[in-house]
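pasting for ref
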Amino acid sequence: MQHLLAQLSADDLARLEPRVLECRLGDLIRRYVHQRSADLADAVIQHIEALYLHPDLCKDPDRQCAYRRFACHWRCLAAQCGARRDTAVTA
C-alpha cells in the first residue's frame, strides 16, 4: 500500500472530490494510529494539502486556515517519526 501512496502526485489528488479526499484522509489517520511512520504522515500531509488547495474549498478561508494548521501539525508528527527512524538506524 505504501508504494501506491508514493506514486500519488499532487495532480492525482487534485482531481479527487473533497469528499473523497476527506474519506481517504480519515483512513490514513486511522492507519497512522496503529502503524506510525513518516511515510504515512507524509501521505496525510499530501491529502491535507490537496484539500486546502482544492478549488471547491479555496472559497472558505476559515476551512482553508484550519487545513493549513492541521498540515503543520502533521509535518511535526512526520518530523518526529523521521527523527525516531534516524535514531534507530544510528543505534
